[in-house]
Specification:
It is built from 10 helices and 8 strands. The protein folds into 4 domains: 88 residues; 57 residues, no CATH class; 59 residues; 95 residues, no CATH class. The chain starts with a helix and ends with a helix. It has 336 residues and is an alpha+beta fold. The protein is elongated.
């Protein structure tokens, strides 16, 4: 009974608008609609683009469901409208697509930028050094976007932000520790970037002999990948490892992070020796064994290493590189 109640609470907000759209779809197949298509087309368009989104908004306004999910519902209504209404009766749909949709999209983007900027400024005013742009972005987007959208959206925005906007040098606090200066990770990323830059032209020329479209698609993907790698490399210096509030916050740019309560730390070993492959061992490194480590942290219970695109890795040991390895070990041991 409890399971049925929870299902109803979670999904009734979505079932009602989807049911209304389904009713409209079947109505457009009825003889009555076919006989009065011109007269009823405005009503159908208004229901799909306005009435159903408003009903959905009223259903979710007091829930934790992001209000921005109204926009995808409008887009679904627009697609259904183009599908069910004859082309000569799509005037109002075209009007919405041409004038109102760009305004809605711009409003959502402006709202996201405003919320992120507000969150960052608030945390800076409270001297929350660990709450950087990426953390604030994740928190803000989780409040206004559907969960499946949060990770890819925040990753793309953060790549652009760290790669092309945030060039100010970050001064480390007493509880912050870098990992990019001596590990060689940045050099590896820039090496990959150089490889992409060198190979892109000859590959484009060779592929163009077979297909111009395929050549330009591959070139675009290569340039896009280059921007991604550049943003990843730049983020390493902006997101140091932090110890605060009895938690060790491990970061590897915007690519990986893990939160380990200090009470869960069993042992810290300063070692750069090769480690055996094990399901419970993780690496704080995107390129795996290509990157070096000089510290191994062992925990009492399983912890989670969050990676790109929402991937998770459970571990009881994690290998990482820290520029100030002795200082970090001493800092944690003093707190313990």
């Amino acid at each position: 009974m409890q399971t049925l109640y929870l299902f109803h609470q979670r999904f009734s907000k979505f079932i009602i608008p989807i049911s209304l759209i389904a009713i409209i779809y079947f109505f457009t197949k009825s003889p009555y609609f076919l006989e009065n298509t011109h007269t009823l087309s405005f009503a159908i368009s208004a229901d799909l683009l306005t009435t159903i989104p408003v009903i959905y908004f009223l259903l979710i306004r007091k829930t934790s469901i992001p209000k921005t999910t109204v926009v995808p519902l409008m887009l679904l209504g627009l697609l259904v409208g183009f599908y069910v209404l004859p082309e000569e009766n799509q005037y109002y749909l075209q009007l919405f697509k041409t004038w109102f949709l760009p305004i809605i999209e711009l409003s959502v983007i402006t709202f996201v930028i405003y919320k992120v900027r507000k969150a960052v400024l608030f945390h800076k005013s409270q001297n929350h050094n660990s709450t950087d742009f990426f953390t604030a972005l994740q928190k803000t987007c989780s409040e206004i976007f559907p969960k499946p959208v949060v990770v890819p959206f925040t990753t793309e925005v953060a790549v652009f932000y760290y790669g092309f906007i945030d060039w100010k040098k970050r001064k480390l606090a007493e509880n912050e520790f870098s990992y990019h200066k001596e590990s060689g990770s940045v050099a590896l990323f820039y090496g990959l970037l150089l490889l992409v830059a060198v190979e892109i032209t000859p590959i484009h020329i060779l592929l163009a002999k077979w297909s111009e479209i395929a050549a330009w698609v591959l070139t675009f993907l290569s340039i896009y990948s280059g921007f991604q790698v550049f943003g990843y490399a730049r983020s390493l210096a902006k997101r140091p490892i932090i110890v605060e509030n009895n938690v060790l916050l491990l970061r590897y740019g915007i690519m990986q992070e893990a939160e380990i309560p200090l009470k869960e730390i069993k042992n810290i070993t300063l070692s750069s020796k090769d480690i055996e492959k094990d399901e419970n061992i993780a690496r704080l490194a995107l390129l795996g064994e290509l990157e070096s480590h000089n510290m191994i942290i062992e925990t009492h219970s399983e912890q989670i290493l969050r990676g790109l695109f929402g991937t998770n890795k459970r571990f009881t040991k994690i290998a990482l590189y820290v520029d100030q390895k002795s200082e970090l070990k001493k800092y944690i041991e003093e707190l313990l």
